[in-house]
Design a protein that fits this description.
By secondary structure, this protein is of the alpha+beta class. The chain has helices at about 30-40, 85-100, 105-110, 115-125, 135-140, 145-155, 165-170, 255-260; strands at about 5-10, 15-20, 50-55, 60-70, 70-80, 195-205, 210-225, 230-235, 245-250, 265, 270-280, 295-305, 305-315, 320-330, 335-345, 345, 350-355, 355-360, 365-375, 380-390, 400-405, 415-420, 430-440. About 20% of the residues lie in helices and about 40% in strands. A hairpin with a 2-residue loop joins strand 4 (about 60-70) and strand 5.
């Protein structure tokens, strides 16, 4: 199964980059752009548009799969029996490539580097719609990054003969020269190090009676390797049994993991995701749900042309939670909101302080409550009211809560040791844990 092509739209919905739709009518990509723009215009609130939009104006069944990044929309069109998951997998890979090349991906960045973006598109997607080279290490030998091009232009004058030959001999000739597809050949560093970030995300739903309906934790091991030569690494854990439904980078030897629950691999150069997994609670646990690290008590009073509320947040952890954000959609007819904040029983005013702040977005009709640092003791309370243009307001019956917990892991996954073979140098090793969560709390 193949995809039809890629389109990138600016924040105004205009195409700025588009792959060649040579086997399709000229109106084919335009119909998908129009379908997405119409769906965005009709959406009652931000983020409520389906990620897959079917287009019915064509003789064949087709759809556009889209994601948002920096105000832009990345669209992959598919037709016939193509799986949308393939489209989203390609989108994720292409966006990661752009971030690896440019850092911050924006409209200005793409317009300033049109030639590089189109070269990347040609190398990652063939004319038939099949993904090709998506490894950043392999692409860097084929498509020069902006920094390398700038250095070449600065060091060699335009009139100097042999510039194209220098490019081909110095860089392009090294493409696919390494016997390992994901790693360059002849890498050298003065300081050798590899860093691991164990990032876990909780996704849960809590019912209106406070009972956890579902909560799962998904984790990934992000790595940043700056190692010389061809290092062969073995990473072991003290409790690998907490990891299930694992998906690994192609560099991981699967037989070794199946046999010993150890990750044996030759890492790519730079940043990459070594493994994805789902946390499996202990079998002795009475329920399979992972405990929610906070509690919310909501007292709602609906009236005519508005309502009042009192929300109380309490942490259940010893660790400090950071950047906690609660969003409450007040309905498409909401006009205004007024709130007061208090922390541990003392009032902090109607606008907020270091303990928290609130705001009402009149465009998205959303009330947002933010707490920078939520300590383990005490409670945070938001009291307020809102007004509506209709007699019977219709707010969302769920709060959306997001938070971060530095130096914490839901699964308590611990690294035992990291061994290096095939190289004689000493390397620096570092492991860091961090967690985040996304909870839907119903009332």
């Amino acid at each position: 199964m193949a995809i039809d092509g890629l389109i990138i739209l600016d924040p105004a919905g205009r195409p700025i980059i588009q792959s060649s739709y040579t086997t399709f009518p000229a109106a084919y990509p335009l119909l998908h752009i129009e379908a997405l723009n119409n769906a965005l215009a009709k959406a009652p609130r931000e983020g409520s548009v389906d990620p897959v939009i079917y287009v019915g104006e064509l003789s064949c069944s087709s759809a556009c799969c889209h994601v948002e990044l920096g105000g832009m929309r990345f669209i992959v069109t598919i037709s016939e029996d193509a799986d949308p998951l393939i489209a989203f997998a390609f989108l994720d890979a292409f966006i990661e490539i752009l971030q690896d090349y440019f850092g911050i991906v924006s409209v200005a960045t793409l317009k300033d580097n049109f030639d590089i973006v189109y070269q990347l598109l040609e190398e990652t997607l063939d004319s038939s719609g099949h993904p090709l080279t998506t490894s950043p290490n392999a692409l860097s030998d084929i498509v020069l990054s902006p920094s390398i091009i700038s250095k070449l232009l600065a060091s060699v004058s335009p009139a100097t003969p042999g510039v194209p030959g220098a490019r081909q001999g110095g860089y392009a000739s090294g493409a696919f020269a390494s016997p390992i597809p994901w790693r360059k050949a002849g890498v050298r560093h003065n300081h050798n190090e590899i860093l691991f970030d164990v990032v876990e995300e909780m996704r849960g739903i809590v019912g209106k009676n406070g009972t956890t309906l579902v909560s799962n934790v998904f984790g990934k091991i992000e790595s940043n390797a700056k190692l010389s030569g061809t290092p062969d690494l073995t990473l072991t854990f003290t409790n690998p049994n907490v990891m299930t439904e694992c998906a690994f980078h192609p560099c991981v030897r699967l037989q070794r993991w199946t046999r010993d629950n150890a990750l044996s691999f030759v890492p790519p150069e730079g940043r990459f995701v070594l493994a994805d997994y789902q946390y499996r609670p202990p079998q002795s646990a009475l329920i399979s749900n992972v405990p929610i690290p906070l509690s919310l008590k909501a007292n709602m009073d609906m009236g005519e042309f508005g309502g009042t509320f009192a929300l109380t947040l309490t942490s259940r952890l010893i660790k400090v939670m950071e950047n906690l954000e609660l969003k409450f959609y007040l309905g498409e007819d909401a006009t205004s909101a007024q709130c007061t904040l208090s922390s541990a029983g003392s009032s902090v005013g109607s606008v907020g302080s270091a303990d928290g702040s609130w705001s009402f977005n009149s465009r998205t009709k959303t009330l947002q409550w933010g707490i920078l640092n939520m300590r383990s003791s005490g409670s945070w309370i938001l009291r307020g009211s809102w007004t509506s243009k209709i007699k019977a307001p219709r707010p969302a019956h769920a709060f959306q809560i997001r938070f971060e917990i530095p130096s914490y892991s839901f699964s308590s996954l611990k690294v035992d040791q990291l061994r290096l073979s095939s190289e004689t140098y000493k390397m620096y090793k570092g492991v860091r844990m961090r967690s985040k969560g996304s909870i839907e709390w119903r009332w």
